Amino acid sequence: MLTVILRRLAALVPILLGISVLTFGAMHLIPGDLATVLIGPDGVQDPVVLENIRREYGLDQPLVVQYGRWLGKSLQGDFGDSLRLGVPVGGEILRRLPLTVELAVLALGFGLVVGVPLGTLAATSRRRWGWLVQTFTIGGVAVPNYLLGTLLILYGGLLFPWIPSLQYVSLAEDPGRHLLGLIYPTIALGTSFAAVIAENTRAAMAESMSQEYVRVARAKGLRERVVLSRHVLRNGLIPIITVTGLQAGQLLSGTIITETIFALPGLGRLALSAVQLRDYPLMQGIVITIATVVLLANLLADIVYGLADPRVRVG
Questions:
Q1: Contact call for residues 255 and 100 (beta carbons, < 8 A)
Q2: Are 68 and 35 found together in one domain?
């Protein structure tokens, strides 16, 4: 297993390299001159000043040279300084990343805790509960997280005033209020994921229940609960794990809107600010960081494949 993990980690290197090329190129394809952006709309557009700024930031060099310099520093953990904040990009990302990862993990857990039981209920009680789960699935996918987040802020404060909606408290300051403040963002971000998991669980279990080994298990006199947990659900885990790994990237991208709505000082909100302010070094560092986290999440999903089903070989 260790050899497989090392091989997969090595395979991530060219992927991240390709992402870095695309990110760097996309940032420089945005119309406008970075030197002009740095001066600002109210600054003096002196050609001498503009040329000095280009020389200071290396903007007078070819793009290949600029990319090589940026890549060399990035490999050393130096993404440069933020053009707007004036602080090292790496330090700012490390300061904001834990909250974003925490929110994504909570949304992931929420989706699994809600989606798997609902999918199981729909597969085992189609006539009774199938319509309810289908309604939740359609509604969860159709309602965007920004609309759900807005509704939670408006009506959650009226129904549950003890749950803070727009008052972020750090984990170090007050762990209890910190977790309370993440309830609504977790629901807003994780509901669509829960709907996808519920539908995939229902489909996977319905297919497993029609297999021969399930009929044999029932013929042996095993309890229905044992048949469902040991045979049906376990053999239906592979598509659930697949969807979970694929949804990790969407959860991280969804934090951009969720953190903005709930005023959370995470990496998603920082990314939106970087785009609005055209802070190229900051945006490039954020994209590489998020891409790394997503690739590692997919690697973890592949490893779980082998734990859930020994027949699956990760390679």
A1: yes
A2: yes
Of 75, 100, 118, which residue sits at a domain end? Answer: 75
Tokens describing residue 5: 């993990």
Task: Examine the domain organization and report whether 177 and 51 are in the same domain.
Answer: no
233: containing domain: 90-308
In the block, which residue shows the tokens 């987040």?
Answer: 149
pLDDT digits (tens), the chain, 315 positions: 667 677 778 888 898 899 888 888 887 777 666 667 666 655 556 677 777 777 777 777 888 888 888 888 888 888 888 877 878 988 999 999 999 999 999 999 999 999 988 888 888 776 677 778 888 888 888 888 889 999 999 888 788 888 887 888 888 888 888 998 899 999 999 999 999 998 888 888 777 777 777 777 777 777 777 777 776 777 777 778 878 877 877 888 788 889 989 989 988 888 888 887 778 888 889 988 888 888 888 888 777 776 666 665 544
The total of structural domains in the chain comes to 2
Q: Are residues 48 and 153 in the same domain?
A: no
Residue 313 domain flag: no
Instruction: Tell whether 26 and 166 lie within a shared domain.
Output: no
The rounded distance, in Å, linking the Cα atoms of 48 and 283 is 28
Does residue 95 belong to any structural domain of this protein? Answer: yes
